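Hi, here's the filled form for the chain we discussed.

Project: internal
Contact: R.S.
Residues: 191
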Amino acid sequence: MLNKKQIYNLTNILGRFKDLKRSGWLKRGVLSPESDADHSFSVCFLTFLLAPEHLNRCRCLELALIHDLAELYSGDYTPCDNISPIQKHLLEEQGMQRIAQELESPRLLDLFAEFEAQKTAESRFVKAIDKLDTVFAACYYDCSKRSETPVFAEFSAYARKQIEKIASSDIESIQNILNILISERENHDQN
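And the returned structure, exactly as it came back:
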């Protein structure tokens, strides 16, 4: 059972997570871009649909739920931001420590550490899903004309590179979906 302080903190955390717009879309001028909470829901839904049977689906969903939560306090940095991966990790770690303390939930720190270390099959799978979801969003934004400049090519190229870095046979289906999305988008653009 949550105590009064935890309930108050949870109210603020959930509200702020829903309000936090993803900076990559803001920087590209996407109208009404998704929030971190929207993105996390999509990552969870894709994880639910695509997780291979031999992976611990519950663990994958837990990792998907918290994968961007620390951004409440660290900020949402993009690859074009001038911040080193080490500095980004430290800021996110501090953010997750603060959230874990506010909610009195040290388990959040364990999940965050697992996701960041990328040593388990579940964490690597969710990382690939995280990148794939960005491609789905970019496709949607281009198709619905939510940006003056198309964003799909840039975001799908970046996602492809990131997914290729993940050494896991569990992500073959993710690569196939990514290739289909790219192929369909290219065909659409040619017509």
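Let me know if anything looks off before we file it.
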